[in-house]
């Protein structure tokens, strides 16, 4: 049975999602930060014959995030996903990849999912400028920098960046050179346990100076100090080299499906 989840389902929902904490950062973070009744967010659950929760689907604006363990109602969830007309469906790779078959999404991209338990000593490059923690007023410059990155697919607007920084559910560190923001690393979906690192980027004219590594190192140390495990996913080998040097370890695969 598939139905909307409410506050009364919080404990069972978080218990299910806790089976894969790194893959479910967005789900846990969005529920922790926005609950079950926000106008831009809804959460559905699929329950088995024994009334146990076995899958969770969350809509955040026009993005969907899914997690499920074997035996969930694939047909019912596929019909719900198709009806929601979302631009992106993401989640643990093995859980979301089968939804390619409903025909509204392109084949799933498989990305490596990683976590950082503790930063590696000396991972931050010497001589790189000190990053500054960015605030809501920096949102336009963060968005503008991301727009310059060819491999990025922008799904977050300026006002959403601003809102996340203002609420404290996101945090960003950046480096400024020559009067402009040239490198940024951001965390999002922060919750008491984890945070997802997103939008790590450097202006093309300022690459290979260790700027992104410097921003990442500062951001991750900040998160770990606050008891939050930094997680991220990637499919760019060059970025992977940076993350491994910082101490990130692979823990699984993450899938992203974009609407056809």
Topology:
Layout: E1 2-4, H1 10-17, H2 25-34, E2 41-47, E3 53-60, E4 63-68, H3 74-84, E5 88-92, H4 93-96, E6 109-115, E7 132-134, H5 139-147, H6 158-167, E8 171-177, E9 180-188, E10 194-202, H7 211-225, E11 229-234, H8 237-246, E12 249-258
Parallel strand pairs: 4-5, 10-11
Antiparallel strand pairs: 1-2, 2-3, 3-4, 5-12, 6-11, 6-12, 7-8, 8-9, 9-10
What report would you give on this structure?
Helix content is 30%, strand content 31%. It starts with a strand and ends with a strand. With 260 residues, it is of the alpha+beta class. The protein has two domains: 2-105, Aminopeptidase; 115-252, Gcn5-related N-acetyltransferase (GNAT) (Aminopeptidase), CATH 3.40.630. Helix 5 (139-147) crosses helix 6.
Major sheet details: 12 strands, mixed
Low-confidence spans? none
Provide the spatial order of strands within the biggest beta sheet. 1-2-3-4-5-12-6-11-10-9-8-7
β-strand number:
12
Apparent shape: elongated
Kindly name the structural category. Answer: alpha+beta
- Work out the strand percent: 25-35%
How many domains, as an integer?
Answer: 2
What's the pLDDT, averaged over the residues? 92
CATH topology of the largest domain: Aminopeptidase
SSE order, as H and E? EHHEEEHEHEEHHEEEHEHE
What is the CATH architecture term of the largest domain? 3-Layer(aba) Sandwich
Specify the number of helices: 8
